[in-house]
Every structure is written in C-alpha cells, then in structure tokens.
Amino acid sequence: MSDTTSDPKAEPGGAPEADRAVQAAPGAATTTATTVDTAAGTAQTIAPPPRQNLIIRDIMRGSVVTTILAIVLAMLVGGILIALTDPAVQKAAGYFFARPIDTFAAIWNAVWGAYSALFQGSIINFQATSFQQAILPLTSTLGFAAPLTAAALGVALAFRVGLFNIGAQGQMLIACAASALLTFNLGLPMILQLPITLIVGIIGGALWGGIVGVLKARTGAHEVILTIMLNYIAFYLVSWMVRTPSMLQKPGTNQPISSPTPQNAVFPALFGPQYPQLTWAFPVVLVATLFVWWLIERSSLGFRMRAVGENPSAARAAGISVPRMFVYAMLFAGGLAGLAGMIQIQSTITSGFDAGIHAGIGFDAITVALLGRSRAWGTLFAGILFGALKAGSFTMQALQGIPVDIVLVVQSLIVLFIAAPPLIRAIFFLPKTEAEKTANAVRKSTKKAARKEAAA
Prior knowledge:
The radius of gyration is 25 Å and the shape is flat. It is 67% helix and 2% strand. It has helices spanning 17-24, 51-60, 64-85, 87-93, 100-122, 131-160, 168-183, 190-219, 223-241, 281-297, 300-310, 312-317, 322-348, 361-371, 376-400, 405-418, 421-427, 434-455; strands at residues 34-37, 43-46. Helix 7 packs across helix 8 and helix 7 (168-183) packs across helix 13 (322-348).
C-alpha cells in the first residue's frame, strides 16, 4: 500500500492540497457527487461520503448545549421511573384525590433521596466524619472511570476515521491473555515488570484490532461484522485458555481462572492504601487522553485520519492512502482497548481473571465515546460521568433500595438522546441548525418542483 502524503504539501502546515480536496470540495460535506479540479488541471469526480460517515459526523457535531440537555432529560426520565417504582409513592397514589400533597411529597422524597445518594456515593459524602471518608467516593469514581475511558478513547478514535469499532471487548480479552501468557512468570522488579506487562497487553490489543484494519483494507469487509465475530473468538479462546493448565489456568485448581497478577505488576495506589480504587492507572489514562488529542488534532497522521473520516473518496483524490488509515486507526483503537484490559488486571481485579474480565466495558465504551462526541477530552469527561454513575449506583441501592438497573436505564437514555439531537432541540424548543434549515429548504424546493412537474 502506498501513501503519497509523505509530501509536505499534504500536511496541515504545508500547501493544503488534501485540505482543499476534503474540506473545500462540496462532496465532502454533502450527499451528492462533486467534480473538482486537481493539481494537474484535470477534472475529477468525487463520490459523496458513505452514509456511515455521515451518521458518525452528525452525532459528533452536536453542541455542548444539546449534550448537557440530553443528560438532564435522561435524569428527569430516570426520576420519573424512580417515582413510579417507589413503594411510598405507590401507596400515596392510592388516595391521591383525598390528599394529593402526600403523593407529591413522596415523589420528591423518592427522587431527591435517590439522586442525593448517587451524589454522596460518587462525589462527596457530606455525612462523613473525616476528610478521607468524604472524598473516598470521588476516588472510587475515578477508579471506575479509568478503564472505561481508555476503551472509549479507542472507540472514539475509530469513529473519527469513520469506523465503528465494536470490538473493544475482544481487544481487552486478548490483551489480558497475551500479557498473562508472556509476562506473569518473568519475576522482574516492579520498575521493569509493571511497564513490560502493560506494554505487552497494549501490543496484544493493538494486533487484535489491527486484524480488523487489515481485513477492512484488503477485502472491504465491514468492520462491525469483523469486530463482533472477533469478540466471540476472543471470548471463547480466553475461556479455553483459563481452563487449560498448560495455558493460563491457575496451578493447583480446577477452576477456570488465571494466576493472580504478580504483585510487581500491579499499579500502586495513587494516594496511599486509604484510597485503594484510585491507582496510578488513572494518570496513565490522562496521558493516553493527551496522546489521542495530539494524534487526532495536531499530528499529520491525525489530519489524514480525519480526512478519511469526512469523506474517503475526497481523501483518496487528495492522495491519502485510505486502506492504510484504516489499519492505523484500528491498531491505535485496539491498543487503547488493550490499555483498558491491562487496567482491569493490573489495578481492578488482580486475583486472577477469566473471560468475563471485560465486565461489559467494551460496549459501555461505545456509549462514552458517543457522549464525548468522539473528542479526546470530551471522552475523558464522559468516562468520569459514567464512572460516577456506576460508583453512586451502589449507594443508591444500599441507602434507598433503588435497583442498579435504574442507572443503566439513565445511561441508555443519555445515548438515545445524544444520538438524536433534533429530538432534544424539539423538546427544549431550541432553534434549528443551519444544516437542518438548508435540508428543509432543499426538501421544500424539491417537493415544489415535483408538484409543478406533476401539474404540467
């Protein structure tokens, strides 16, 4: 595969031939084919972006206001569900017409109690007797957010290149298996054991993701099918490995579980043993976030990736090797998912793992990437939000008796509203975007022309 973008003219700082082809060409922003003039003075027709790219781009271009309103609306709907399922509310509703104030008071107590418990379990516990206990929920939130954010960064990076990476689960599993198979028995000091274990896992995840990139580039196979099938392969492969003594099964047991993570490979607590869930894995995720931001927003490679995400046809016309960008994107995405897997076995679950070590993070990462609009820092904040929801859900259940499933419903609603910005604007009576106004004008003119033609 050749890549002609090694010429400085193709880089963001040089003469932007690729920029003109991708950004100035109407075909890069519309759904119709466009003819542009090439550097040689000849005309070239650029096909419109695939529908998949348009869908991803529409979701990513939502505003911060619509994102915040989507979260607020999801919390409101969650509050309604909490009220409807609360026994006190149901009891008061039985005599609503006799004393309606009792029903409204019960609703307030149920919803306020639930969300205050969520806050106390995820941010600050104001009822704590010491500062250490007060901020313990925040450290739990950051601990839950670390692997979720790492996996979501991989999904978000793939989104920016126009790819749906549904394979973070399999990439996490292969990363854990590769690291356990190759590094658990090294017996090195921590200064070597910890980074080697981490790097081997990242490489394992990257190679598993790279398989998707190569198949996509060489055969044109759809990445959604490829990643889903590789998830199954990884799951059953790891399931077999942890049941096989000569592979990953813990010595001296018949249980399907691996050996514990070597103590020298475990991330130490960031602020001491009093905050066990917040380890040095979180700073590693911050570094990964900074790297993804630089890669996508500031590097020449990231410019070419974004060009492919906008319109592969326009990028190809500008001399960018689209297949190579697919391979690069999936390598990086798999590596970031591998980082999430390594955080799981080097920080969260160090007593041994099985095929359930992914803990649903691979699919939750899709939600976080969508909420973060596939931007690096937005994904980080979305990961912290979802970490807070997870940490607080246990307190909600313990103090208020509210099922953890309610939080999962809220998360699902957030994604639903994030994926439908026009719905949010309609509910909150927000003005339409310029794109929507243009689309409506085109639709009206098309209908008007069709009526005139039918009348003639």
